[in-house]
Amino acid sequence: MTTDAELLAVAAEEARIGAEEGGIPIGAALFTRDGRLLGRGHNRRVQDGDASMHAETNAFRAAGRQRSYRDTVMVTTLSPCWYCSGLVKQFGIGRVIVGDDQSFLGGQHWLAEHGVEVTVVNDPALIATMGAFIHDHPDLWNEDIGEE
Amino acid sequence: MTTDAELLAVAAEEARIGAEEGGIPIGAALFTRDGRLLGRGHNRRVQDGDASMHAETNAFRAAGRQRSYRDTVMVTTLSPCWYCSGLVKQFGIGRVIVGDDQSFLGGQHWLAEHGVEVTVVNDPALIATMGAFIHDHPDLWNEDIGEE
């Protein structure tokens, strides 16, 4: 059985890749409940000039067309924003693992109220990475979440 | 001044293009409040095998990186699903024009409760097009909204 830590490590690796590319260091991956990887990705705003590619939407895209998401798990290094929370709700993704809800809090409580199983890890390394990024790049971060 | 009908016509043209490509006939466009087109697009599930590209997310993507969405208008031929409603909420898009909320009802009331100006047109031609598509392609339609 795959542990939550193993799943989160894939998202964290995606965040690292994004950071190395000069992008916003948020990563995500979509797995089946039994730990099979369907898709992984990271925020592409800087790299592709693509405002629509948050980590979660990029992982969802990489997973291709799926007939059901009920038995899937979205693992993300950062609490999913409303855009990505809406994705989880619309497609009925059954579970979300959040690496860090201290640097940013999106719609995870709303998802839990709607029956999604939400697990918050609050990994110190992820919190430190995201906190440093927000501190060093406030304009880019605010742009990514639509804050003026 | 650009009328709502003129804005909706751009989204409707995108829906037509999508249908001609053999795709799901939903179109959208993002405008400034004073009618300048920022981006337009349509559902790309069939054409690109891309589950992440709903009409609204495709139009949002085509608009590129924007610093503020407060004075923008998302025009869509169909009521935005939760994924696309989450997009509108997260990025603070100020207004949504819905061409049809009879074939499908997404998160538009939730958006209105959160201060988004929502205008519903219910254009008979759009309702007829979407109704026929759902009738003729129930599996594809259900896949696009995550229904099993």
Automatic annotation (TrEMBL), chains A, B:
Subunit structure: Homodimer.
GO MF term set: diaminohydroxyphosphoribosylaminopyrimidine deaminase activity; metal ion binding
Domain CMP/dCMP-type deaminase: 2-118
One record GO biological process: pyrimidine-containing compound metabolic process
Organism: Leifsonia poae
Cofactor(s) required, per the database record: Zn(2+)
Gene: codA
Keyword hit for Zinc: yes
Protein name, as recorded: tRNA-specific adenosine deaminase
Gene3D superfamilies, per the entry: Cytidine Deaminase, domain 2 (3.40.140.10)
Localization annotation: Cytoplasm
